[in-house]
Amino acid sequence: RRVFIDGAWLPPEAANVSVMDRGFLFGDGIYEVIPVYSRRPFRLEQHLTRMQHSLDGIRLANPFRLDEWMGFVTQLAGEAEWDDQSIYLQVTRGPMAVRNHAFPKDARPTSVMFAEPMSTPPASQREQGIAAVSAADIRWLRCDLKTTSLLANCLLRQLAVDAGCVETVLFRDGFLTEGSASSIFVVKDGVLLAPIKNHLMLPGITYDVVLELAAQHGLPHEVRDITEAETRGADELWMCSSTKEVLPIVRLDGATVGAGGTPGPVFARMYAWYQEFK
Ligand code: PDD
């Protein structure tokens, strides 16, 4: 197993980063998680485009060109010991001589990448659905950037775990934003509803796939603001991400979602389309 660090490939125990790295001291960096199916990176170009958006948002020059990243990711996906993987990639603003919030004059970014086996959710979660809690979205106002400053997301996810649930659904000012590490969809009266991509949520790659599949298969869908009341009154509620794919949420804060408290018929269709497509 090899870890990518600044263009070199090293055994994990030899891949070291300075304690003065701004990623470590300030969470000053960005990341991506890229799913790999049968050693083939899924939606690689979209992930790398989003990586560039995050880098631009934190004013950090990309240490590599897009085609170089494509090569690195493809090489890693090809040589890892698992067919299905998730590739983790991060770029931080690198080490500083003394601790100082302001950017170093000649920042030398630190790039790190490694593969892990893909941990797809157990079939039971898909078949029976999962439980979620809700919380106020306490994050900053640039949630469109995939930064490594994930403390708020970690605290929010832990609320779910503490309650024996899988995900925390977030509301800001009465509107649905997303999950602590996932995008959220609502189904009402046969229509798939998705929140608008803006600075309050991550532009999810899986979110895009779900909407593309809806369009392709003629499933009515709307991208618009979704209120907390609409979320709680949903017929179906889904979460999705690169590692979880699509999962049905059947309980929210202890209340049953929709009629049955079981995964809904629209979810079943979307799940099948996703499996066929990926
Ligand atoms: N998280 N929203 C947030 C806050 C996320 O962290 C993620 C993914 C998503 C879904 O994005 P995508 O479909 O592009 O994976 C939405 C990754 C998987 C993670 O942090 O591990």
TrEMBL record:
Domain of life assignment: Bacteria
Keywords of this entry: Aminotransferase, Pyridoxal phosphate, Transferase
GO MF annotation: an example: transaminase activity
GO CC annotations, alphabetized: cytosol
Cofactors that this protein relies on: pyridoxal 5'-phosphate
UniProt-listed GO biological process terms: amino acid biosynthetic process; carboxylic acid biosynthetic process
Family: Belongs to the class-IV pyridoxal-phosphate-dependent aminotransferase family.
Protein name stated in the entry: Aminotransferase class-IV
Species whose genome carries this gene: Sulfuritalea hydrogenivorans sk43H
UniProt lineage: Bacteria, Pseudomonadati, Pseudomonadota, Betaproteobacteria, Nitrosomonadales
